[in-house]
Amino acid sequence: MVVKKAFKDFDCEILEASNGVEGLSTAAKEMPDLVLLDVTMPVMDGVEMLTRLKCDAALKAIPVIMLTAEGGRDHVLKVAKIGVRDYVVKPFRDDVLIEKVGRVINLKPRTEAPLRTKSISDPADILVVDDKSAIIEQIRDGLKHWPWRIHGAASQGEAVDFCARTPPDLVIISLSLPDETGLALFRLIRANVCTKYTPVFGLAVRTETAQMQQAQNAGLGTVITKPIDMRDLETRIAKAMNLDTSKRYYAIESETLIMRLPETCGPSILTEIDRHLKPKIAEAVDAGHVNVVIDAHLLNSLEMAVIKLLFQAMQTCRELGLKCAMVGNSKIAAECKGIEDTRHWNFYDSIEAARAPRAT
Amino acid sequence: MSASVSNVFDVMLNLETAAVGGLDSSVPSPQSPAIRLGDAPQIVGTIGFTGEAKGLVYLYLDLAFARHCAGQILGMTESELTVAGDEVVHDAIAEVTNMTAGGFKNCLCDCGYPCMLSLPSILRGNSFYVVPVSNAMRHTLRFNCSEHTLVADLFIKLGD
Fold this sequence. Notes:
heterodimer
């Protein structure tokens, strides 16, 4: 609650966990942009939670700032070795905490009136700064299914001119621009009042760990690695721009709510799907629709977390009296047969086929 | 301890504290009675530390002052605190106790007495006794703060 007060003027959501076990569970479910972690907690203390977080492949990239009354020199060194972005000793001044958090994530002041949430299908201006035109083209091509305008700039000067003319919604800067001008550009963007809160991503080759570390030290928290995973880039852009991503996974087609699962469902994607599940079903019910089709035909593999999500979706449909059917492929159908709880699941070959029994 | 109390109340609560009457040090009795802040109901934040230095820290506040402190640290009005209930006040005072004892403990660590804090807890009432570890010393500090009295009561034993 003390932390909530510090951030009351900023547009950020604070999730609370009262101990390390709850903290790990919340981190896995919500994939937060930052964890503020105390040390002295019941059940599991902050040091153990930090250790476990940093050993978990899915969670280790989440930056952590310690916020604790434990400020002994030896203790700080021990925690620093496990891996934290900063260390704030209580008592703390709100402005100090905000400044340190602002170095890790983009903190935007809260606006007075609630704005309509922008959707992933709304137009947006994204500036890609790279002296290699092939990379700009690759990003333009990879994101072409969204109405985002991808603008290219080959140098720091071109990028500054572009930002002065049209402040972009997001900037991606190559960290391999000549003479390390990438980080200099990032600082210029942060220093300009028009782009101070614009999300900025770095772009680096996956093996250039020193370059990525340097960027993170400069406050450029998100670095996209090459070769670029377009699905991951898309998710990160949507999250950074706070876009409503429900259209990626949910649609109403021919009076049926379609829930679409992509090829791979990592924790962040499952969290997104799960977050929209109940509101989207409620919207469908509200609009008078009674049919739901879960389209899993693209899915590569049926992980336990996906099965859990599907059970939850089916349960919600049952509770609301909706008819639910699934579309799948032969691989996941076979996987289901091997699991006791999913043995009886039936998959249709297409959405049309899944809808057909309902029409009769 | 005096510096730690002043620092926490200044930084977190924006309240100035003034030490009153100097440090009162004594060998505690095996059953040391609680301090009473007059007849008003009181809240006591308590936290232990163990290691090369062992002991207990008690922070005594009258209920009205505890609510004022909770309001300051959480940015809540009196009516918001009433709606939120006693637990919020308890949590706030536990946090203040944790920070105060933490500042003191960090000094002990840096002076060569590494130790760890326990979880803070809250006592209500004024009819209890403290049973300190043997050979501990008791140091009591009184402060004036916002027309209220605040007492930091420390039981400590250094080394084995």
